[in-house]
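FORM 12-B: Structure-to-Sequence Request
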């Protein structure tokens, strides 16, 4: 009788070990999603300000998707953020609850981010850099995301950081030199740009400068807030001005020329300072 009981206990322990072992080996399909993604390709003004972030919430023990939209105005930017709980299986993303966030933007406009509850099918590339989602709602009913890689962002920042010079503006008895300095800040998600304007009129000279936070993406720089400052000496004024905007940038292969552009405005050509 004791031998049977001992065998039964051993059998139960063995089954318990198998169950716990199977649970420990459960595939975590959400892991490849964690991080921030942009809508691919860039260049669409309707989707460029949108980011999808997937993360695990340690407090709730659930996975979440965060959809953010940055709405750029003339003087300030506003960000709306919608957070929804999700479950990710081998081929589906289940959005468990709809979420919407609306923020007041400039004038009477509104900045809105939203995500609808539902089941999305997905495929992920072998290198983990792209996700194609089908049936997310909307038109067209397909969404391609590319990973916003911190290593890639670091390379972009290295190429942009430093001093860039604008061609000297010459007047009859005056000239103006303008420099842009791009540099990092305390917030790793943001950088900074400083405009330094040196003005000469006759024998008089003035120096004016302003700073603004920026976000550097794959091929664009977003200036988050407008800034302006005047230095005066009698009727002589020297003005530094930065306008909030999203600018496309291109850097020459040798890294010496950067061109900033946006629709309807003459491109700004900068030369790297030494």
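FORM 12-B RESPONSE
SEQUENCE OUT:
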């Amino acid at each position: 009788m004791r031998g049977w009981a001992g065998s039964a206990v051993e059998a139960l322990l063995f089954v318990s070990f198998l169950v716990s072992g199977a649970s420990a080996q459960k595939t975590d399909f959400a892991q490849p999603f964690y991080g921030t993604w942009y809508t691919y390709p860039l260049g669409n003004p309707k989707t460029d300000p949108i980011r999808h972030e997937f993360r695990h919430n340690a407090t709730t023990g659930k996975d979440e998707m965060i959809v953010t939209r940055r709405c750029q105005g003339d003087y300030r930017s506003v960000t709306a953020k919608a957070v929804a709980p999700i479950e990710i299986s081998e081929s589906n993303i289940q959005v468990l609850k709809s979420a919407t966030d609306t923020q007041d933007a400039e004038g009477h406009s509104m900045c809105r981010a939203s995500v609808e509850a539902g089941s999305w099918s997905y495929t992920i590339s072998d290198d983990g850099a792209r996700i194609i989602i089908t049936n997310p709602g909307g038109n067209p009913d397909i969404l391609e995301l590319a990973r916003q890689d911190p290593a890639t962002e670091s390379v972009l920042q290295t190429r942009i950081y430093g001093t860039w010079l604008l061609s000297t503006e010459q007047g009859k008895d005056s000239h103006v030199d303008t420099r842009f300095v791009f540099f990092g800040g305390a917030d790793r998600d943001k950088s900074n740009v400083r405009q330094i304007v040196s003005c000469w009129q006759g024998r008089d000279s003035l120096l004016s400068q302003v700073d603004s936070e920026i976000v550097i993406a794959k091929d664009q720089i977003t200036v988050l807030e407008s800034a302006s400052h005047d230095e005066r000496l009698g009727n002589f004024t020297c003005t530094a001005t930065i306008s909030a905007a999203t600018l496309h940038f291109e850097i020459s292969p040798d890294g010496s020329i950067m061109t900033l552009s946006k629709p309807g405005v003459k491109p700004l050509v900068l030369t790297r300072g030494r």
